[in-house]
UniProtKB/TrEMBL annotation:
InterPro entries: FG-GAP, Integrin_alpha_N, TAT_signal. Pfam families: FG-GAP_3 (PF13517), Inhibitor_I36 (PF03995). Keywords: Signal. The keyword Signal applies. Residues 1-32 form the signal peptide. This is FG-GAP-like repeat-containing protein.
Length: 410
């Protein structure tokens, strides 16, 4: 159990400036000096031998992989302002174990965690390192008590979205500040949380909602910095197959939302709001790409978040939830023709305090799609259960998963 004093210290440290993502500098083995005192004040240093002896590495920030220092760290001294989390696995994966350390020094072979001696493969240095160490993580993790519930069988494809591995539970996709993309599964799921890959910080928008190529598996779209949109077909196991290029020029879009079948032809579609405030429907062709777009309407500059949340009013048509710049939440009922009926207010204020909103299907197991919101202040995700009512309204939320404040969830 983590001591109470560490929680207090962690809170103070979180207010400090964030550490650089990566970057290290090595020094040659000491010639004149040896021991911990070789490390300058304000630095974290690790050593190849106990008691600060042997080769020394000066750590500038979090390291997903230690390279030549993998499984070589035997002792450390932390003179920095931040906590450090040492992980046994690469990629800051907490599932194999680790330990958090604060200001001080020590040799792992004489510590409470001797299993870390010459066994560390990644480390996290920064104001949030203590939050996401050992059993906690830098990807979305479901709570044991408030995790997603098993869904009833979906009556139509319109209801079958958000489940990446076909086990009947909502799954999450999250990208952390290191550019890692993870998929997360419920505690009762036979699936395991997995690292999909790294380098996803090259993508400026990501969105998912159901099956877009007709194989019955959940897919993903991502736009890169050059404006190219890519289709990532789901494999049905929480990962994705070889990507397909949809097209270029998508930097003209402020937001994208995979929203299910908006046009009533049985194929999943895409919504896109451009920089001028026009909203477009891109009808899917059943192969992951799209036909000629259809204009929905103008005036969408006032919206800063679009969510394809599913059939929220139980009329068998895909709907849209949107948040405006004033922090209000609106429900747009789909008409089955690629556009929407008259909107309804379902959230009066305060929604701008939530950094992302996502539609991941039925989280609560009642057969109705729900809305998920990222709450950075609590490092968590809330679920707002759908009511299925004609106004697309939501019930009171509860927190059901943890997520770092600097991560994206969908």
């Amino acid at each position: 159990m983590r001591p109470t004093s560490s929680r207090v210290l962690r809170g103070a440290l979180t207010a400090a400036a964030a550490a650089a993502l990566l970057g290290t500098a090595t020094t040659a083995p000491a010639q004149a000096a040896s021991g911990y005192d070789r490390c300058s004040w304000g630095q974290l240093c690790v050593f190849s031998d106990p008691l600060g002896k042997g080769q020394m590495l000066v750590v500038k920030g979090s390291m997903l992989n230690l390279g030549a220092w993998d499984n070589r760290i035997s002792s450390y001294v932390n003179y920095s302002d931040w906590p450090v989390c040492f992980n046994l696995a690469p990629g800051l994966d907490p599932r194999q174990g680790g330990a958090h350390e604060y200001a001080g020094r020590g040799s792992f072979d004489e510590s409470a965690t001797p299993e870390l001696d010459n066994a560390i493969s990644s480390l996290d240095l920064g104001p949030e390192a203590d939050w996401f160490c050992e059993g906690e993580s830098r990807y979305a993790t479901y709570g044991w008590e408030n995790g997603p519930k098993h869904r009833p069988a979906a009556p139509t494809a319109l209801d079958a979205f958000g489940d990446l591995n076909g086990d009947g539970y909502t799954d999450l996709v999250s990208r952390n500040k290191f550019g890692q993309l993870w998929t997360s599964h419920a505690a009762n799921s036979p699936g395991h949380d997995r690292l999909v890959g790294s380098g996803w910080n090259s993508m400026t928008l990501l969105t998912r909602h159901g099956d877009h190529n007709g194989d019955g598996k959940e897919d993903l779209y991502a736009r890169d910095k050059s404006g190219t949109l890519w289709f990532y077909p789901g494999r049905g196991d929480g990962a994705f197959g070889t990507r397909i290029r949809v097209g270029g020029g998508w930097n003209s879009m402020r937001d994208l939302a995979a929203a299910g079948d908006l046009t009533g032809d049985g194929r999943a579609d895409l919504l896109a709001a451009d920089t001028s405030g026009t909203l477009w429907t891109y009808p899917g062709n059943g192969k992951g790409v799209f036909g000629a777009r259809k204009k929905v309407g103008g005036g969408w500059k006032s919206m800063n978040e679009l969510v394809g949340a599913g059939d929220m009013n139980t009329d068998r048509r895909a709907d849209l939830v949107a948040r405006d710049t004033a922090g209000k939440l609106w429900f747009y009922p789909g008409n089955g023709k690629g556009t929407f009926g008259a909107r309804r207010l379902i959230g009066k204020s305060g929604w701008n305090s939530l950094t992302e909103l996502a539609g991941v299907g039925d989280v609560t197991g009642d057969g109705r799609p729900d809305l998920v919101a990222h709450v950075p202040s609590s490092h968590g995700l809330r679920v707002y259960p759908g009511t299925g009512a004609a106004d697309g309204g939501l019930r009171a939320p509860k927190e059901f998963a943890g997520l770092p404040s600097d991560a994206l969830a969908l």
